C-alpha cells in the first residue's frame, strides 16, 4: 500500500489531502492508520517531522465522521493533549485542514490568554479539542468542560510532558477520562518512566516505531565546535553571517538553555546585523506568534528558542539548528535537531561545546550512537571576532584563548562525501558545490580532549542560569570596562588588537575560579 487512497480513509479526507499535495503516506502513517481505523489503541515512538500528526488525525477524523453525533454542551469527542501552546496550535491547524470537508469542529485551548473566551467557545461543545494540560484542567475546574464523554484521546510528545512536570496533571486527566475510549500515546523516546505512564492510558496497543528509539534524525548532519563559553556569541554571529551571505542558511534555530540566554543571544545577533528573534515562555502569546510568523515567512531567518518553546515549531525549510549550549538531557538533543530535516528535507546541526559541556556531549553520543564531526574555528576567528560590535565582542573578552584545536573554517559545512576523517569541510553549501578554498583537515581525535578535572560536572548537578565562565566574564567586565572600550575605539579590527582584547588567561586561573565557585555551591 503506497497511496493514501489504499488505506480506506473516507473520500472527504482524501480530498483534503489532495489539496495539501500529500499522496504517499509516511511510514508512521502507513503503519498506524489501518490499526487506528479498527479502533485499536496505539503506542507510537516517533520523532518530530515523521508525519505523526496526520497519522493520528486522519483515522480519528474518519471514525468520528462515520459515527455522527450531536454535540454535547461543554464536552468534546476527541481530546488531543500537547505539551506546548505552539504545538497545540499547530496540531489544531493541521486537524482543521484535514477536516475541512467534514462537519466536525476543531478548537484549541492553552494558557497565556484569558480563559473566559475559551470557556465561552466551549459552551456548545466541540468535536475535537486540542489542549495543553494546565489549561485543560483549569477549564475542567471552572466547569467549562467535561471530558467524561471523550471517545478518542491522544497524548502527544509524552516525554516532553514528563520533562515539563506534567505528570500529576496527566494522572488527573487519566482519572477523568471514560474507561471506554480509544487512546493513542506518542513519544519521541520511550524510557521506562514514559512506558509506565503510557500504561495508564493505553490497553493492548499496537506498537509503531518509525525510527529506532532515540536515533538521531538520519538526514541531519551533525557538527561540534569546541570553544569556551564566552566565545560562543562571536562564533555564532560570524557563522550565521557567513552562511547567510553564502545563501546556505534558509532558516536557523538557535537553542539556548535559558530564557534569559535566548534574549541575550537574540539581542547580540541583532547587534551583529542578523535579524533574530527570541521565543520562550516569558514572551506573550502575541510576541511568540509574531516571531513564528516572521520566521515562517522568511523575513526573520533566525529564531532563538528554549527547548520548550521550540517544541511547536513546525516550519519547513529549517536548514540549520545551532546548539548554543548543549542540553543536559540527551533526549533533548534529539528533539532539537529534529527541528531540521523535517518531512524528508536535509539539515545541519552545529553544537557549541564548552569544556564543561563535554560530559553532556558524551551522553548525547552514547544515546544517538553518532559522533558529530568536529568543526574547527574559522581561520581568522580572532580578527573577525574583534570587528564585531561591542556587545558581541565583549562577551568573548577575558576568555582563555588557548586553543587546543586547529583553526579552519567553521559553520555548517556538510560532511565531505563520507570521508572518515570528518575534518575537511565543503563550506556547508546546500547545493553541494565545493568552493575549493583552502581548508584545514581537522582529525576528530585532535579535538576530543578529555574534560579537565574541574570540568567533569555531571548533568544531574544543579546548573546555574549563567555558565560559570560567563559569570566570571561578567565580573571582570565590570572591573575593566573603560580601558577596553578605549582600546576598541583606537584599534578596531586588527589582529593585534584582538589579541590584546582576548587576553590569554592561564588555565590555573580558570580552574581556581571554578573550584571556588564549586565550594560556594
Ligand atoms: P509532523 O511529524 O506531524 O509534525 O509532520 C511533519 C511535517 O510533514 C508537517 O509539516 C506535515 O504537514 C508534513 N506531512 C505530514 N504527512 C505528510 C505526507 N504524507 N506527505 C508530505 N508531507 C507530510
TrEMBL record:
<feature type="compositionally biased region" description="Basic and acidic residues">
    <location>
        <begin position="394"/>
        <end position="493"/>
    </location>
</feature>
<feature type="domain" description="Helicase ATP-binding">
    <location>
        <begin position="33"/>
        <end position="208"/>
    </location>
</feature>
<dbReference type="Pfam" id="PF00270">
    <property type="entry name" value="DEAD"/>
</dbReference>
<keyword id="KW-0347">Helicase</keyword>
<feature type="domain" description="DEAD-box RNA helicase Q">
    <location>
        <begin position="2"/>
        <end position="30"/>
    </location>
</feature>
<dbReference type="InterPro" id="IPR001650">
    <property type="entry name" value="Helicase_C-like"/>
</dbReference>
<dbReference type="GO" id="GO:0003724">
    <property type="term" value="F:RNA helicase activity"/>
</dbReference>
<comment type="similarity">
    <text>Belongs to the DEAD box helicase family.</text>
</comment>
<dbReference type="InterPro" id="IPR011545">
    <property type="entry name" value="DEAD/DEAH_box_helicase_dom"/>
</dbReference>
<dbReference type="InterPro" id="IPR027417">
    <property type="entry name" value="P-loop_NTPase"/>
</dbReference>
<feature type="domain" description="Helicase C-terminal">
    <location>
        <begin position="239"/>
        <end position="383"/>
    </location>
</feature>
<dbReference type="GO" id="GO:0016787">
    <property type="term" value="F:hydrolase activity"/>
</dbReference>
<feature type="region of interest" description="Disordered">
    <location>
        <begin position="392"/>
        <end position="521"/>
    </location>
</feature>
<protein>
    <submittedName>
        <fullName>ATP-dependent RNA helicase RhlE</fullName>
        <ecNumber>3.6.4.13</ecNumber>
    </submittedName>
</protein>
<dbReference type="InterPro" id="IPR014014">
    <property type="entry name" value="RNA_helicase_DEAD_Q_motif"/>
</dbReference>
<dbReference type="InterPro" id="IPR014001">
    <property type="entry name" value="Helicase_ATP-bd"/>
</dbReference>
<keyword id="KW-0547">Nucleotide-binding</keyword>
<keyword id="KW-0378">Hydrolase</keyword>
<dbReference type="InterPro" id="IPR050079">
    <property type="entry name" value="DEAD_box_RNA_helicase"/>
</dbReference>
<dbReference type="Pfam" id="PF00271">
    <property type="entry name" value="Helicase_C"/>
</dbReference>
<dbReference type="InterPro" id="IPR044742">
    <property type="entry name" value="DEAD/DEAH_RhlB"/>
</dbReference>
<feature type="short sequence motif" description="Q motif">
    <location>
        <begin position="2"/>
        <end position="30"/>
    </location>
</feature>
<keyword id="KW-0067">ATP-binding</keyword>
